[in-house]
Design a protein that fits this description.
- By secondary structure, the protein is an all-alpha fold.
- The chain has one domain.
- Helices cover 79% and strands 0% of the residues.
- It is built from 17 helices and no strands.
- α1 packs parallel to α11, α5 packs across α16 and α14 runs antiparallel to α15.
- The longest helix is centred in the first third of the chain and has 40 residues.
- It is globular and about 70 Å long.
- The relative contact order is 0.16.
C-alpha cells in the first residue's frame, strides 16, 4: 500500500502541474516541482542529521534502562492490558516497557524523546514478527496509537501562540485535549475492529478507566490555573518527569552494579546506525509530499471543500484553517508552517488561527511516522496501518473543528 500512496503523490502533482500549464499558462510550475525535489532532499538530510544526535542520546539512555531492569519491570506492570490489545506479544516482553515509555513521552509532548523510544519499541516488536517485511498486528496498533498521539501538554503550540502575542496562550488547551482524545479513541477502535480485538473486557476497561480517571483529575487541576500558570506548569511537569526518568535509570543501573557509561555507549552506537538506516525511507516520503504540496493540489482541494460547504449554505470560516489540517498527516513542519501562516494572516486569536492550533495538536504526522518507524525495521507491507492512521487523523481534525466552533465560534 505504501507503494501506491507514494506513487499517488507524484502522479497527483504531475496532473495538477499539467493542468496549471495548459489551463493557466503557468510555465514555471515544473521548475517549482523540480526545485521542491531538491529542497525536500536537503530537508530530509537535515532532519536525519538532527535525528542522529537525538537517537544516539536516547538509545544510550534506554540501554541503561534495559540493563538496569526497569524496562522489564514496566513491561510486567502493563502485561495484563497488552495481553488483550497485543495478544502476539508475550507477557513481560521488553517491547511493552518501551511502548509504555513512548506513550508517556507523547502524552507529555516530548517529541524529541518519544521518537527514539518509539523506534526502540518498534525494533523490539520486530523481533517477534514472523514476517519481517510485513507489519504485524501489534506493530500496526502501536503505530496507529502513535499517529493519533494523545497529548496532555501541547507545550510547543502554547509556545508558538505566546511568540505570536496571544494574551492567553493556553486558551486552546482543553480543545486540543478533546480533539487528541477523540483521535486516539478512534485509532484504537479502528484497529480493534480490523484485528477483531475484544477491548470491552474487564481488564482493558479497568486499565482504560483508571487512565481516564487520572486524566480527568489532571485536567480538573490544570483548568484551575491561570493561562500563564498552565503553560509554565505543563512545561515543568513534562521536563521534570523526563529528567527524573534519566536519573532513575542511572541510579537503578548503579544498584545493579552495571557499567552505566558502557551501557550508554552501547546504546548510542545503535542509535547512530539507526539514524543512517532511516534516511532513505524519510527522503522517499518527504520528497513525494514536497512535490504534492508544490504542485498546488492542496489549493485545489481547499477550493473544492469551500465550494461544497457554500452550496449547502454552511459556515465556511473553518476553511481558512484547513491548510494545517491537510498538511498534518503529510508533514509536521509543513503543518506547523501553515498554522503560523494562519496566525500571521488572520491574527493569533482569530477563529481560523484558533482552529488551526487545535488541529495542529489533535493528531500526529501519519506519513512521517510510517516512514520513520517502519523504515527503521525495514517493513515494506504496511497492511491496514495507513488506513487506520488516516481514519484517526480524520476524526481528530473533524473533532478539532467541531470543538473550535463550540469554544470559539
Amino acid at each position: 500500500m505504501l507503494n501506491w500512496i507514494w506513487l499517488f503523490f507524484f502522479l497527483a502533482a504531475f496532473v495538477s502541474a499539467l493542468a496549471q500549464l495548459l489551463l493557466q499558462g503557468n510555465t514555471a510550475i515544473f521548475n517549482t516541482l523540480v526545485s521542491a525535489l531538491f529542497e525536500m532532499s536537503k530537508l530530509s538530510f537535515d532532519i536525519a542529521l538532527g535525528l542522529v544526535g537525538i537517537l544516539t542520546l536516547w538509545m544510550g539512555i534506554l540501554k541503561i534502562g534495559e540493563h538496569s531492569g526497569l524496562v522489564e519491570k514496566l513491561a510486567r506492570l502493563l502485561s495484563p492490558l497488552f495481553a488483550h490489545l497485543m495478544p502476539g506479544v508475550p507477557r513481560n516482553h521488553p517491547a511493552l516497557g518501551h511502548i509504555t515509555m513512548n506513550f508517556a513521552a507523547n502524552m507529555m509532548g516530548l517529541d524529541n524523546a518519544a521518537t527514539p523510544i518509539g523506534i526502540k519499541a518498534m525494533q523490539s516488536l520486530q523481533t517477534l514478527n514472523p514476517r519481517p517485511d510485513s507489519a504485524s498486528n501489534a506493530q500496526i496498533l502501536f503505530l496507529v496509537l502513535n499517529t493519533s498521539s494523545l497529548t496532555l501538554f501541547p507545550i510547543a503550540i502554547l509556545m508558538y501562540r505566546a511568540q505570536q502575542g496571544a494574551p492567553e496562550p493556553a486558551t486552546v488547551f482543553l480543545p486540543i485535549l478533546l480533539a487528541t482524545s477523540a483521535s486516539s479513541i478512534a485509532g484504537l477502535l479502528a484497529v480493534a475492529m480490523v484485528q477483531k480485538l475484544n477491548i470491552f473486557n474487564r481488564v482493558v476497561l479497568a486499565y482504560l478507566g483508571s487512565a481516564v480517571a487520572l486524566l480527568l483529575a489532571l485536567v480538573l487541576y490544570l483548568t484551575r490555573l491561570t493561562p500563564d500558570e498552565l503553560t509554565s506548569v505543563s512545561s515543568l511537569i513534562a521536563n521534570l518527569l523526563l529528567f527524573s526518568v534519566v536519573i532513575l535509570f542511572m541510579v537503578a543501573g548503579i544498584r545493579r552494579r552495571i557499567n552505566v557509561y558502557e551501557s550508554f555507549i552501547e546504546g548510542a552506537k545503535e542509535g547512530f546506525q539507526l539514524a543512517i538506516t532511516i534516511l532513505p525511507y524519510l527522503l522517499a516520503m518527504l520528497v513525494a509530499i514536497g512535490v504534492f504540496r508544490a504542485s498546488g493540489m492542496l489549493d485545489y482541494l481547499l477550493q473544492a471543500v469551500r465550494w461544497c460547504f457554500e452550496v449547502v449554505g454552511m459556515d465556511t470560516r473553518f476553511v481558512e484553517a484547513l491548510p494545517t489540517a491537510f498538511m498534518k498527516p503529510l508533514s509536521g513542519s509543513g503543518a506547523r508552517a501553515m498554522m503560523l501562516e494562519t496566525m500571521n494572516n488572520y491574527g493569533v486569536d482569530s477563529f481560523p488561527a484558533l482552529i488551526a492550533a487545535t488541529v495542529q495538536g489533535s493528531t500526529e504526522t501519519t506519513f512521517y511516522v510510517l516512514a520513520v518507524y517502519f523504515g527503521a525495521v525495514g517493513i515494506k507491507r504496511i497492511r491496514h496501518a495507513a488506513a487506520c492512521g488516516l481514519f484517526a487523523d480524520g476524526v481528530g481534525i473533524v473533532t478539532a473543528i467541531a470543538v473550535g466552533y463550540w469554544f470559539f465560534g
